Amino acid sequence: MAEAATEEVKVCYRAHVAGKGWMEWNCNGQFAGTVGENRAIEAMDIQVWGRGYFCADAHIRNVGWQAPYGDCVASGQVKRVGTVGQALPMEAVRITLSYGSLEGIGHVQDIGWIGPFRGDHITVGTTGQGKNLELVTLKVIG
Fold first, then answer.
1. Helix, strand, coil % over all residues of the chain, rounded to 5
2. pTM assigned to the model
């Protein structure tokens, strides 16, 4: 788990990547995942500090959005989205902050870089196209 002072505004995250497992924690605009290896993100752990609570959800290939999206966690807690050990690729991740804004950028199989997406509710990735989400970068912008 990443560590941050309680007054600091920060988002940290790590990706569970097909064939590699859990990658290192990254924060505020750093990359989580891979590019050019054709490896899907299967799960993510996400932490946000200094923004009350946040909600997160993953769109899983052949499953859809996980439920319930309203399953939110308090600032500093870890929210896991996606699956581990089931070989189910994530196609998108969506995050909502109780206040403030995020910026998210992604890299998607056969599409390339997408974004930036900005707001208090963002979705990074695609749905219904059967394309793996391969890399995500997130940062708090307001």
1. 0, 55, 45
2. 0.91
pLDDT tens-place string over residues 25-48: 999 999 999 999 999 999 999 999
Written as six digits, the tokens of 27 are 């924060």
Q: First CA to last CA across the chain, in angstroms?
A: 23
Write down the domain spans for the chain: 10-140
Would you put residue 19 in left (φ > 0), alpha (ψ -120 to 50) or beta?
A: left
pLDDT 10s digits, 53-111: 999 999 999 999 997 666 899 999 999 999 999 999 999 999 999 988 999 999 999 99
What CA–CA distance (Å, rounded) separates 73 from 39?
28
Angstrom CA distances, 109 to 14, 37, 44, 117, 134, stand at: 19, 10, 17, 18, 7
User: Which position has the token pair 């900005």?
Assistant: 118
